[in-house]
Each structure stands twice: as C-alpha cells, then as structure tokens.
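ARCHIVE CARD
Drawer: 12
Card no.: 0347
Subject: one protein chain, sequence and derived structure
Cross-reference: see card 0346
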Amino acid sequence: MNDIDAWVWWLVAAAALGIPLVVTAMPEFGMFAVGAVAAAVASGLGAGVVVQVLVFVIVSVALIAVVRPVAARHRARQPGLASGIGALKGRQAVVTERVDGSGGRIKLAGEIWSARALDTGRSFEPGEEVDVVEIDGATAVVV
C-alpha cells in the first residue's frame, strides 16, 4: 500500500465515521472523523503508518477531552428567558369557571384561557388557584 492509498483510506474512514454521527447524533463519531482527516493529512505529508495512527488517536482523544465538557455545559444551560407557551408552563392561574377533566376556564397571565384538569377525577371551583403544567393547543392543563 503506497502513501496515496493510505490517505484515501483515512478519508474513507472519516466518511464512514460520519454516517453513525448523522444516524445516532453522537458527536464522538464526528470527533473520530476529524481525527481520521488529520491522519489523512499526516499521510499526505509522508508520515509513516505509526505516526498516522498516533495523529488519529491524539486528535480524536484531544477533541473528546476538550469538546465534550464544553458541549455538556452548553447543553445543561437553561434558556434565560422563556417566551410563548414555554413561559406559561409552571405559572399560577385563577379558576373563573369550574375546571374538571372535560373543561373549564381560568385567568392566566391576564387572559381567559380554556382549561382542563390533568387528573380527570379532580375539579377546581371558581376562585381557586391552580398551577399550569402543560399547554395543549389552546387549552391549559392544570393541577
């Protein structure tokens, strides 16, 4: 196998690692693919097989060690300001018309909303405070 064949095989490996990246959405496969591209570059520059494998391992491990913690911190961060329907979940509302499993009305964020109880056997009378747990279309689901 000559040098050109080696870099081509590294690029084939990079493409093959890109497939599970797309299918499984596991970013580690992308990091391995970048390592394979780095090994292809090393091969293209005339490096031997041992150096190519070392470049692959070092680049892949370095990316996993650096990128994964950054991605985990970014993923764990909650959005600072909820808007739309997301902003209504968890809010308190006041029952204006009896709410049960089949329907009713509440005042939520200054507006009258149709509502239904999450527990179909439970009912809430006018004046009671309820918590919004979900928005289902134009209906607030409350407990």
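Annotation on reverse: The two ends are 69 Å apart (CA to CA). The mean pLDDT is 89.
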